[in-house]
Amino acid sequence: MVLAAGVGFVGVLLKQPLIVSFIAVGLLTGPSMLDVARSSEAIDLLAELGIAVLLFLVGLKLDVKLVRSLGFVALATGLGQVLFTSIFGFLICLALGLDPVTALYVSVALTFSSTIIIVKLLSDKRELETLHGRIALGFLIVQDIVVVLAMIALSAFGVGTRTDAGVGDVLGVLGSGLALLAFVILFVRFGANRLTERLARTPELLIAFSLALAALFAAAGESLGFGKELGGLLAGVALGSTPFRDAIAARMAPLRDFLLLFFFIALGAQLDLGGLGQSGWAALVLSLFVLVGNPLIVVLIMARMGYHIRTGFLAGLTVAQISEFSLIFMAMGVSLGHVTGGSLGLVTLVGLITIAASTYMITYSHRLYPLCEPLLRFVKVHRRGSAVHAERVEGDGPDVIVFGLGRYGGAVGAGLEAAGRRVLGVDINPRAVRNWRDRGHEGVFGDVADPEFLATLPLDSAEWVVATIRPAEAGVSHADPRLVLLHQLRAMGYSGRVAVTSTDQTPDEYMLEEGADLVATPFTDAAHHVVQRIEAMSKADSSGD
């Protein structure tokens, strides 16, 4: 843990994601260097739990509707990148001297991009709601589907190739998987929403239940023969249709990052640094293929669909690395005896190179494009109506985000909508969110004190953030949620106005000093009066007064 903190701090100074630091910690603690990772049973247990939680969060976010809403571009570009990388990667691996089975594993592993890294980098740059950011999210969902299919195929292939496996064993695993899938479908249909709504009244219990469900399904998958990875994935799918999935994902993300540390420690204990050195040339070739080839195919496909080269370039940079799933996929192959530890070390080295390099490429993407633009002059853009329409999607967010959907907050939100504003409501009370949606408004479940959740909100389009929450409604945090929100918005670079309510002894002047533009007192300010004040200040802004 001391090494993880120290190496992680150095990684932060170098602007590197935690995955790179965690892989480095795994190598440092392994037998080839410091040899301190000796508690193998405890490390393996935490590593397996980390994989279960990671796949659980993938299942939780597996929203095919988002791909449909993005249109054909996300599906076509995502599948095009996957096919390009797998086919040409396979040929390159054969040319490097790998046997066909290993070449197939490595080429498939190269197709996965890191959801964690891309979302984090785009969130930091406030580009999740831009056109290329939304298309990048489409890539991730398409790749998540490919991950699911690849792991299903690998599990079935692994059972079928066991020396002691018969037709009955294969059919038994298939039947068990279908039975668990049927249970998930029934749970989603009849019990998920009602159960999670009850649990969400105590947010800590909702997270404990989610973690337990991930562990339970992972254990069931391992016992039934189709793997803990698919078990954890199905657990996420079971809760993916509930309105609380974003809140669950935001709160479990730090736990996922902590547990994944032990996966990389366990991985480092299996790797031989001498073997990694022998794979250096192959790793460099494959890394260049991922860093250059993946963005290029995205630019070509998007240009064919009518998107500007710059949009394709910025979107393409997000797939210029491999992910933690690549290592998990290779580790599954090693456990099944299909590939050796040397191929796992090769993919690990490719991961270190591509993740480290692509982080800087994405961070400085706008500076990098003018340098690369002359090299992309051969790309011809085919103008189509779909792309022109998609360019307009960027400004299609809410005008006002209202935190707190109680009687007062709901009245403020409804009044603003009546005044022609597009309002997004947010509340930690599931019943309040449901009632708000039942009245035909947009609403999401989430905790104002959670910065991970705030990063998912479309703040770029919002002219106003209105907080009608009380200090007693701070969720898992005992801090004043209004101050937490003001500080988080300031840290995230939010440039709009903020209105807060005051029902306690906190002076209005203090809230104004902390960043609020308007402080309303519900007992003296009627909701319609707040609406009038917001509208008046907005008109003053537009007129330049």
In a nutshell, what does this entry contain?
68% of the residues lie in helices and 5% in strands. With 545 residues, the protein is mainly α. The protein has a six-stranded parallel sheet with strand order 3-2-1-4-5-6, sandwiched between helices.
Task: Please tell me about this protein's structure.
The longest helix is centred in the N-terminal third of the chain and has 30 residues, at 131-160. The chain has helices spanning 2-13, 18-29, 40-60, 64-70, 72-95, 100-109, 115-124, 131-160, 167-190, 192-199, 203-224, 228-240, 245-270, 273-278, 280-304, 309-316, 324-336, 341-363, 365-372, 385-391, 407-418, 430-438, 451-454, 481-491, 508-513, 527-543; strands at residues 400-403, 423-427, 442-445, 464-467, 497-501, 518-520. It is globular. The chain has a 6-stranded parallel β-sheet with strand order 3-2-1-4-5-6, with helices on both faces. The protein has 545 residues and is mainly alpha-helical. The protein contains 26 helices and 6 strands. Helix 22 links the parallel strand 2 (423-427) and strand 3.
